[in-house]
Give the backbone structure.
Amino acid sequence: MMPMWRTMTRSAAAIAAIAMAGGIAYAQARGAPAPRRHDVRIEAFEFQPKELRVAAGDTIVWTNRDMVPHTATDRSGKWDSGALQKAGTWKMVARTAGTYEYECALHPTMTGTIVVR
């Protein structure tokens, strides 16, 4: 099944971006911190950092620095980056609080954890 973000039309993506910007402005007006970007490097067959703590609404970006493809795949099946080639990136917005254990589906000894507060 294709992730929803991959099937959105340009107009739907534009509407979503406007709505998200409005939500960010509202949250900032209420004193909530603005969403942040967090980077995870895939390098030397490891996710770096191995554990990442983020707030709901933050964006996580994985970048493959290895010569071989890797994935970032939630062990419970909620999300999957698909194969990331060298220099490939994939991003996800953390929406729901919880602890998410993930791995590379191609190299299952590569593991990481995302904690969303």
Summary: The first strand starts at residue 37 and ends at 43.
